[in-house]
Amino acid sequence: MQNYDVIVLGAGINGCGIAENLAGSGKNVLLLDKEGVGQGTSSKSSRLIHGGLRYLETGQIHLVYEALHDRQRLIAKYPDLVQARRFILPIYKSSPRPAWMIRMGLWMYDMLAGSRKVGHSKTEDISSFKANFPAFIDADLRSVLSYVDAKTNDKELTRRVADDFQDLGGTVMVHCDIESIDWDEIGFNLHSSTGDFSAPILVNATGPWLNEVNEKFNLPARFQIRKVSGIHLIFDGLIVPELMFMQTKEKRIFFIIPEPENDQTLIGTTEREEDCDMDDVDAQESDIQYLLDQVNAYLKPDHQFQRKDVRDIYIGVRPLVRRKGDVTDVSREYKLDLHTKGETKLLHIFGGKLTTYLSLAENVADVLKI
Prior knowledge:
Elements: E1 2-3, E2 6-9, H1 13-24, E3 29-32, E4 48-49, H2 61-77, E5 83-92, H3 99-113, E6 122-123, H4 126-132, E7 141-151, H5 154-167, E8 171-173, E9 178-183, E10 188-192, E11 195-199, E12 201-204, H6 210-217, E13 225-236, E14 243-247, E15 253-259, E16 264-268, E17 272-274, H7 285-296, E18 312-321, E19 335-341, E20 344-350, H8 357-368
Helix pairs in contact: 1-5, 1-8
């Protein structure tokens, strides 16, 4: 039996961030994953480090503030992986939100960023947009706005955090299947395919697998997660010169994300609630067609995409805290669910975003009081 101060389950961005934070405070930490570092949701995001402009509409002010704070910290901490980028927002006559409403949201976004701003929002010249984005329809174009957030390589960022954790003396074990978890007032004993481990503290950061882990090992929990999948379509070539924030008629949003380093463009994402096991989640043709229809609604006929133009597809699953309501409006804020037995502690991480992993990790240390 190998003994540790803390065992963290799940080597996604939150698990890696928590492990790094605890190792930095001198704890002997073991990080376990059944696949590899960043193999799940953390490598299947929109690859954005952002405050969440659309979350203002549903009143998630604290989440936006926290995310904007972490955005700036990540730009400073990993300048080679996280860079500020401009986003373009064209507003048409048919857009569900008028330009004045978007301007108000951008003003609030800038205010919440405060001194951590990486750039100001502004109104762009329509004629410049037409010249630089010739594939886009220009009939009924009312305004073009812009703001600044950041972009990253999500998988490489997660791996870098894991590397930093190991540099602090932490241990990572991947391809580790947990066979049983025994819990008493003294500690947790984990039996796995790679060995047996014990610790007085267990952190469950398995993301969208969290419900399944709790059920398999009969772990108590006050919440459940809703598994909301989102796909991204990959096209060859740079369809647009800059990142774009687009609206649908149903008031949803999607991004068009150029990646010059790959000479490719990403378009995403969708929101579908999944009721199957995580390992059975797969992209649906209806979601693929949905994204094609949404982007084609903005493109001139000779620039529109067909199904055969899709170079690749990837799907990620967001672990949202279960509440009633449409998945589009469900809060993206996380919950920390602590259970104690004698001197031992079990902490579940419900939810969490790529952008806010630093703050989440700090809050975990506070909740655990270590």
